[in-house]
Amino acid sequence: MTAQDWLADTRTSYDTVAESYTDFARDALARHAVLRGVLAMFAEAARAAGGPVADIGCGPGLISGHLHGQGLDVVGIDLSPRMVDIARREHPDVRFRVGSMTDLDLADGSVGAVLAFYSVIHVPDAEVPRVFAGFHRVLRPGGVVAVGFHVGDRHHLKTEGYGGHPMSLHVHRRPVARVAGWLRDAGFTIEAQVLVDPDQEVPGGVLFGRR
Fold first, then answer.
1. Which of 40, 94, 109, 156 has the fewest CB atoms within 10 Å distance of its CB?
2. How do the domains of the chain map onto residue ranges?
3. The domain 3-98+106-140+150-210: what is its CATH number?
4. Confidence of residue 182 (pLDDT cuts 50, 70, 90)
């Protein structure tokens, strides 16, 4: 599958489920104290780094809005135009734009922090190093990155999503060590790792790195 193919499939899939996904995710942070804690760690690191935060793969803006409420200057970027429309509607005080994490339209060293919260899960393995290199490029020296992902070692094709709507995209589960290795190869130093819901079928992992 070419980059154009998987990007097009991801964009179309999330355009299709955008409204249903927004309803599904609306109270996710309210229901999950651990994720709020992880985001509090990120917010503290982002404040110390200074400058704006880029929320990459922001979806309907749930986390962008949460971080804005913590006093951070946030720009949300998502591949799906429909998701960006909803994010602007739901969080009118936050900046959002359509864009791809494979080719970030951000200047070199222009942000203090990058968040990719469960948004690299659809990126093929071969493309992840380029994505992480892009994160490194847009961060200023001393900037922080946090990457959330599904932990495991398999992938599957998702054909139906939120509200029963059709989707066609791969969902990747990855070992923590593999994701950490990609970040190190991109030039980051790993400062922390968090394992979320380790007793569940699909645990979550969050890695914090610094440029």
1. 156
2. 3-98+106-140+150-210
3. 3.40.50.150
4. very high
